[in-house]
Amino acid sequence: MAWTPLHAKIHRTIRSRHLFERNYRLLIAVSGGQDSLCLIKLLLDLESKWGWDLGIAHCDHRWRSDSQANAHHVENLAKTWGISFYLETAIAPVNSEAAARDWRYQALSAIAKANNYQYIVTGHTASDRAETLLYNLIRGTGADGLQALTWQRPLTTGIMLVRPLLEITRTQTEQFCQEFKLPIWEDSTNQDLQYARNRIRQELLPYLRVNFNPQVESALAQTAELLQAEVEYLEKAAQQLREEAMSSGIGDEKDFLTRLLPLRLNRRVLQKAPLALQRRVMRQVLQQILTDAPSFEHIEKLTALIIAPNRSQTDPFPGGAIAQVEGDWIWLK
Known about the structure:
The chain has 333 residues and is of the alpha/beta class. 52% of the residues lie in helices and 13% in strands.
């Protein structure tokens, strides 16, 4: 096996970030594209050092005429490498990016659970992280959206989603595949400019590289990495503040009574906190009562009640809930 700087980098990343434990079963999501082939090759080469048991999963969305041939291509690679192969095919074509992503993670989770894999591993790169940051920024988002694509997160009970390539760019995965002559399956949908992400990849990022920063993908990925740590800190701080605001003044039986009472927040507790934490508390509260993610407008009108006059109230939130000020308290009814 040829040991390249990329092998060394991924080995160090896995160890320093504690992405995987030794001797665990890893299910690798392989589309056949350059990123996933780079990923599986790296993990195969590291397998003996870590004692992993690797498997390959491929999800056929049925939205391309060559999708079945693509699946056969990945299956043949798995056979060549002597790895277990799992295929999930959509019953009907999945035609939107969001629907495809949801279906894919559900399919991967089901395969992992049925076959006792503790980790699902995907080939998302620094380039994907940069594209996601730009995509969410353009649509409008806070720090949470800008730090999307984290190194790891739980998918279901006992199954962790891990992305080991988040410091590797798409240019690097392409060079790696060329070096090892890996048979890349070119996905024609990646060239379809009707998808916003493809326009970012094919048009916006090249423009930014030429006119602003040749290393723009790495720079944006580093920004996402910094934001991830800050978001984690702020979320924990907001959770502590929310718990204090919800339980303040209830007394010794506060944990029991809090579950029985309508949702309420102590304004005096919240008024001492910075605006950033106030907003996060309100977002966490709204996540409990709304079926969809709260918008900026929803969060702002609830935050405004922290210093609003007594008896102030909001117009109804989606689903009909209303927030009202009663003395030191904001009630959601």
